[in-house]
Amino acid sequence: MPAPGENLRINPDRLWDSLMEMAKIGPGVAGGNNRQTLTDADAEGRKLFQKWCEDAGLTMAVDTMGNMFMTRPGTGPDALPVYLGSHLDTQPTGGKYDGVLGVLGGLEVIRTLNDLGIKTKHPIVVTNWTNEEGTRFAPAMLASGVFAGVHTLEEAYGKQDAEGLTFGDELRRIGWVGDEEVGARKDKMHAMFELHIEQGPILEAEGKDIGVVTHGQGLSWTQVTVTGKDSHTGSTPMPMRKNAGLGMARILNLVDEIAWSHKPHAVGAAGHIDVYPNSRNVIPGKVVFTVDFRSPDIAVIKDMEDRLKVGAKEICDETGLEVKFEKVGGFDPVTFDETCVAAVRNAAERLGYSHQNIISGAGHDACWINKVAPTAMIMCPCVNGLSHNEAEEISKDWAKAGCDVLFHAVVETAEIVE
Ligand SMILES: [Zn+2]
């Protein structure tokens, strides 16, 4: 397969300037960004991205979820497009790079191809997926999910924010309802690559420039309800207590043990806990909490779920409590496409960047797109693994390495023509 020469590089200063320019739109309160989806700031960011793309000769299409597709034509009449992109929306107290690097990195790939006068057989499409973050309108990765057929358009349009505004109305209000049917192009994709910051501490700790993402973690949410009897903390003798709080404490210890038993990739915790009646001098009569287990291996997730149920039942039997379980969410682990992953690894190798395989702990648009097209992700380190925080930071060198690898992986896949 024709691959670009080792000497070809993106322009890191131009990439960095664009990142800083985009960060001026929807500034946060502490140096980061608040460019939440379908806000005026989102619309302004989209306009700027559109202008940059059109200046680079790309043609825009927008679908009914507001996903933006900016196309550079290829020379092959029947060659399917290679996609690259991520998201421009941010958390309310988000950083300048989460998502944005993948979109503007995609634009930088196009600008570099233009500089070098390189033509490709396959068209290249830079994409901005709407509402990846899911903070304003849950769930996350909403528009790539509709695109991939995971949710329906009607479901998505009906999602409400905290003020009761709907996704559909807000998308219309900011003027970004396109006329292309969402998902219409999902069977006509050659491949998709997403460059993203790691949002974790591994690459920086290992001193690696590039994470070659092989899998995305699967997720399982089990809501556990432990019921005992609320009674006075002072006057109830120890043998007569039915302390749901104690049951929960022991179960959470078990959750920790279960996750450790599947090291290094599995994780487990309860992030959401409700205690009833939540009063200083009442022994909790009921506790409801959600156990979050994650692993790249579906069998491990299943094992963790099963051991939670058996173990929690034992604990509750011993402590005179009742326990109920309800699966309230989850998605299967993702295995990214071997050929696309190899293109990323080869590119890092060819360019002399240090790299290692990595598993994405967070969800990404690429996880849904992988259902409909061969997909891979490239990760670059971020300082202290910090993300979803205004202090999120990366170095220009890391951005450069990530974008160089994106460039080479995309061009290898899109095939250079003379
Ligand atoms: Zn992101």
UniProtKB/TrEMBL annotation:
GO molecular function: hydrolase activity, acting on carbon-nitrogen (but not peptide) bonds, in linear amidines; metal ion binding
Keyword Metal-binding appears in the UniProt entry: yes
Entry keyword annotation includes Magnesium: no
Cofactor remark from the record: Binds 2 Zn(2+) ions per subunit.
Key words, A-Z: Hydrolase, Metal-binding, Zinc
Binding sites annotated in the UniProt record for Zn(2+) 2: D98, E133, H388
Requisite cofactors: Zn(2+)
All copies of domain Peptidase M20 dimerisation, residue ranges: 217-309
Gene3D superfamilies documented for this protein: 3.30.70.360, Zn peptidases
Protein residues bound to Zn(2+) 1: H87, D98, H196
NCBIfam families in alphabetical order: hydantase, PRK09290.1-3, PRK09290.1-5
Family membership noted in the UniProt record: Belongs to the peptidase M20 family.
Protein name per UniProt: N-carbamoyl-L-amino-acid hydrolase
